Amino acid sequence: xxxxKSEVKRLRQELVLKPSAxxxxxxxxxxxxxxEGFTEEEExxxxxxxxxxxxxLMELEQAGCSKEYIKKKLRSFVLNQxxxxxxxxxxxxxxxxxxxIPFDELHxxxxxxxxxxxxxxxxxxxxxxxxxxxIKKEIIEQDKLEEFRNECAVMEVxxxxxxxxxxxxxxxxxxxxxxxxxxxxxxxxxxxxxGHIKMSWEYRKKFALDIxxxxxxxxxxxxxxxxxxxxxxxxxxxxxxxxxxxxxxxTRVKAKVMTSKIGTYQWMxxxxxxxxxxxxxxxxxxxxxxxxxxxTRKPPYYGIDGQxxxxxxxxxxxxxxITEKEAPGPFLDLMKRTWHEDPEKRPTFSKIIQ
Length: 354
What we know:
The protein folds into 3 domains: 2-83, no CATH class; 93-181, Phosphorylase Kinase, domain 1 (2-Layer Sandwich), CATH 3.30.200.20; 188-353, Transferase(Phosphotransferase), domain 1 (Orthogonal Bundle). Helices cover 38% and strands 14% of the residues. The chain has helices at residues 2-14, 40-48, 51-62, 67-79, 137-141, 146-157, 188-192, 201-219, 270-273, 281-296, 306-315, 329-338, 349-353; strands spanning 88-90, 93-94, 106-114, 118-125, 128-135, 166-170, 177-181, 225-226, 235-237, 243-245, 252-253. The strands form 4 sheets. The chain has a 5-stranded antiparallel β-sheet. A two-stranded antiparallel ribbon has the order 1-2. Strand 4 (118-125) and strand 5 form a beta hairpin. The radius of gyration is 24 Å and the shape is elongated.
């Protein structure tokens, strides 16, 4: 609150406040439309922020967000006057408004899937079938928007045949969503576990190559990007059975030291589980688990709790079981090299593709 008061005082000194902008419960001003519950300093702060920022606060209030959350957002606006609400994603990433999609242009058909922070629908935009990834309302309230911000910022700048095409985003609260190309054949996970679908080794190799090309593109970007949650659930298939990487909420521009424990235990590299520093070789390990899925068409470590899997992967060198009869020799050899304990001994995606 002290910071808020000092910033309000500083901004008031910089601005010439017109009489009509002063708080007046009986008259009309730009604070009208908000419910009661703001202190005098907060009311002054509302007058000093931009019209767009006031609109964001009103939209949050209309969406049913708590007063404390709205006040927290107000403080962030005052203390960061140069930053917009949804456009500054992190130190190196910005979502540019030229890909902003008005929410009223979207038409929903049916729900496709649900994840930790979003629900994916099939829908239509400008007479085109699309996938709409809508951010859950409780995520807005909990201030856990980092995944959404990262996904917007990453997907806006990447273009590759083996990565789901980003069409735009709705970044105006309370309707936050990402609009993507629609992949009609669903996820690789679903395909692998559909017993009615026969899958030749040629197709399995094609899927592996598609995925490798997509990740290679990320790793060799001008600012190398680590996916960090590579798994069959995050690989989608279009009508022609081309694999496309999806779900970029946990991606990161490669830093000198990466230590965050991000991913899904069954696909997670031991160095990530342990909280040690890691590189793009963590994605190589996850790719190796996908190779095992392609070979066996089974869930990795089926029937074992994820936490227990993580402990055994680190302490006992646990890997999914596979016999020589379940995969061709070169495929099996590559799989085992990708999940090597030592990250330096895992091949790069350049070598994998070759």
